[in-house]
Structures are given as structure tokens and as C-alpha cells.
User: Which sequence fits this backbone?
DNA sequence: TTAACAAAGTAACAAAAGTTACATTGCTAG
DNA sequence: CTAGCAATGTAACTTTTGTTACTTTGTTAA
């Protein structure tokens, strides 16, 4: 079953031989929407390969404030956890399934072993790291240079792309939480967007008209 | 000469055989304070190994606003440039020598070649990436959760650690630039810190008393 | 010694974001 | 069909940050 899933989603990415190896040692898991995959402080000794769905990665400081960083999608892996299993260091991020998702987990020991054996794995690891660094840079960009209204609009349009649906099922409170601001601020700005005909507001639901 | 430098700074990190390889293909460079090493959009096909000094890595958006991300020090490499040489992607960051520094440059092709051959290189690359991701996370933390006064104080104390000197030779304008805020805001907060006996202000110079 | 200039100080105001408090609305379980 | 409740709307206010404009202070080169 894993073999079929891999061939479906990773056929161009990995060599046949590597797909066989992953089939041997990988474990497949379906996760439900809102399921917690990885919490802060976890010692995570598996490499996740996302087959389908979306995982929201967020970061929390010592005071308990939280901010959403980025989403993992099909073809992604969570490089930020690569450090968790190897050394004594523990996860600094949280991963929650945004929608029902399918994941294959690979034991962390294979990370290095396969770096030696498979060119496609070397590319995958390096690419994954580079993509993740880019995403972090984008998050920094957003925080450093954008005002709240721009950040919020980016949040909405990014989510539309991830969910592949112009209707977002979420609450103002949840958005505020993801952006580390207050519900009132979000409601105020969303109302502005609605007046500007960029979105349409409903209870528990936002239609994004322009994106 | 490179061999001696490497043995001095990277003896525990790299296997002897790898040090020989680096000696063969690496080029040594001394850079002066304020020298630009890597600019936005550059196609950078070298891996830098920092031997001494400090390189300030900063990020600029399309509008020209800039923000300092972190410093590279002895033992560090700039993983964020690993992507620049390989694909068509170009540098999204800028690197400027904060003080006189010594660097060895390695051709980017060696990145993958040595992943296969040397365990110490695999560890170095993975560790470097993980460290960089951590630093990025810290930058996000600072931007998302801290008020300007805390951010500024962190800026000062971080710099004291990097420079190994409690006296910082800088201007309010330069700090404002690094933090993407205005000079007036920085001056105002610094004056507060001085009143709180945390620092002492001079022209072009700040003494950090508590850190 | 002093003109010139960069750096720093500061007041006054504007804009953005956060907070409090309460009203209104829409959904759902009984 | 309605009580209860979570979600949303909104006003009023505070705090933080940014901006403008002008003054004062060191430093340096002529």
C-alpha cells in the first residue's frame, strides 16, 4: 500500500530502489483534521513525508503566545524536525493537521544512511531545507515589513491557495491566534475588506472574492 | 596555509582526509570590515566557511526595506546560499563583514560529492542547516512577540556577545536600519535605557552596562 | 579657531495596533 | 420554537510606534 502511495506522489522524486527502501521501513498514517502531530518539546525521531492534506506548522514562545509559520503540503517534509531526533534538542514547533492528511514516517537513522546511497535523497533533503529556509524568510518578511492589514490579507489568500477553496471555514478568533493579535483587530480589518468588496463575511466562514 | 587555518579552527569538526580535500579546492580570503560578501540576487556558487570574524546576514524586501537576521561566526557556514548555486534561484539575503574576517570558499559541487564520502561533512551540513533554522525561528520570535524596547535591548546584547566587547561602535541610524524602524524611535528608547542605567550613550558609541 | 556636518536630543503630533466592554446575531440542542 | 451560547460587530479609549521638524552637540578638516 505504501508502495502505491509513494509511486503516486513521489515517483519523479525518488529512485525506484529508494521507494522500495521507504516501503520497507516507512509507516503509513492517516491523520484527521485538527489532530496534533508534533508538539513543542517533543523528541521526534521520525521523518514525515506528506502524501496529501496540509499540516500547519506554528511556533510558540515561553509565554504561550503562538504564531503560524507555514504549511506543509504534498511532497513536503518537516526539516525542522530533523534536528529533534538526532541530538538532544527538542521540537521548537507544533504541527497540526489543517485537513485530513496522509503521511509516511521514516526512522530518522535513514536520513544519513540514504544521503550516502541515493542521489535523489540528497537532492530531496537539500531542497527541503532550502524550501523551508525560504518559507521562514517569507515569514520574517511578512512580520518585519507588513502592517496588520497586509498580513491579514496575505494570511487569507495563502490559505485559499493551500486549501484550494475560496471559502475558508474559520473564526476571527482562530485567525487572531494564528497571527498573534487580538480578535477585535481581526474583525475590524475583515470588516474593512468586506467594505472594499475583497471578501464576504459569514458566521464561521469567509469567502475570499479577490486573490 | 589553508591547511593550518583549517586544523586550527575545524580540527574536531572535519576528518583529516576532508581537511586535505578542502585544502586542495578551497580558496582563502580575508575580508575587511563593511566589505560586501554577498548581495541580493547574486548567483553564489561557493560555500563559505567562516574562520574568524563576523558576517551580518540581512534581508531586504522589494521596497528596499532591510532587516538584520543573524550573524555568522567562526565555524558557521551560510546554508542559505546552498540553494543559490545549485538551482537557478538567487540569493535572498545580503552578507556584510561586521569586522575583519577570514573565510574559506569551497566550490558548490563539493557539497553533494562530500555528502557521499565524509560522515563529518554530512554532520556539518545537517547541523548547519538546523542551526540556521533555529536562528530564523529566533528572529521570527523576536519580530512576532517582542515590543520595540525588548527587540532593541536584544539587539544590543546580542551584538555585545558577537563582538565580545561591551562597547558598541555604531550609530542610532545604523541600528534603526538593522531593525527596520526609524532613528527617532531608537534614540528615544536608548535614552530610556540610559535613564535605567542599562547603557551609557556617547557619540558613535554605546556602552552596554547590563547584559 | 571655526565652519561644516553628521549624530543625537526632543517636542508634538499622527497612525497603527491593542484593550475593554458591551451589544447583536446566528446556530443548535433540547 | 426558543434558550443558550459562541461568534461577530462596534465604540471608546490606551499604548506603541512612526513621522516631522527643529535644536543641540561633538568631531574634523581647512
Assistant:
Amino acid at each position: 500500500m505504501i508502495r502505491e502511495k509513494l509511486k503516486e506522489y513521489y515517483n519523479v522524486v525518488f529512485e525506484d530502489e529508494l521507494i522500495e527502501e521507504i516501503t520497507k521501513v516507512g509507516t503509513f498514517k492517516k491523520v484527521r483534521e485538527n489532530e496534533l502531530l508534533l508538539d513543542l518539546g517533543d523528541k521526534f525521531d521520525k521523518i514525515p513525508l506528506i502524501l496529501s492534506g496540509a499540516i500547519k506548522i506554528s511556533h510558540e514562545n515561553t509565554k504561550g503566545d503562538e504564531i503560524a509559520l507555514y504549511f506543509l503540503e504534498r511532497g513536503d517534509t518537516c526539516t525542522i524536525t530533523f534536528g529533534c531526533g538526532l541530538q538532544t534538542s527538542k521540537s521548537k514547533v507544533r504541527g497540526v493537521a489543517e485537513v485530513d492528511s496522509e503521511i509516511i514516517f521514516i526512522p530518522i537513522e535513514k536520513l544519513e544512511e540514504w544521503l550516502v546511497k541515493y542521489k535523489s535523497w540528497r537532492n530531496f533533503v537539500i531542497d527541503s531545507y532550502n524550501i523551508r529556509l525560504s518559507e521562514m524568510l517569507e515569514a520574517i518578511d511578512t512580520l518585519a515589513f507588513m502592517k496588520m492589514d497586509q498580513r491579514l490579507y496575505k494570511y487569507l489568500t495563502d490559505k485559499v491557495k493551500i486549501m484550494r477553496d475560496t471559502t475558508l471555514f474559520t473564526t476571527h478568533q482562530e485567525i487572531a491566534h494564528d497571527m498573534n493579535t487580538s480578535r477585535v483587530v481581526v474583525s475590524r480589518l475583515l470588516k474593512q475588506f468586506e467594505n472594499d468588496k475583497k471578501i464576504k463575511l459569514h458566521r464561521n466562514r469567509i469567502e475570499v472574492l479577490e486573490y
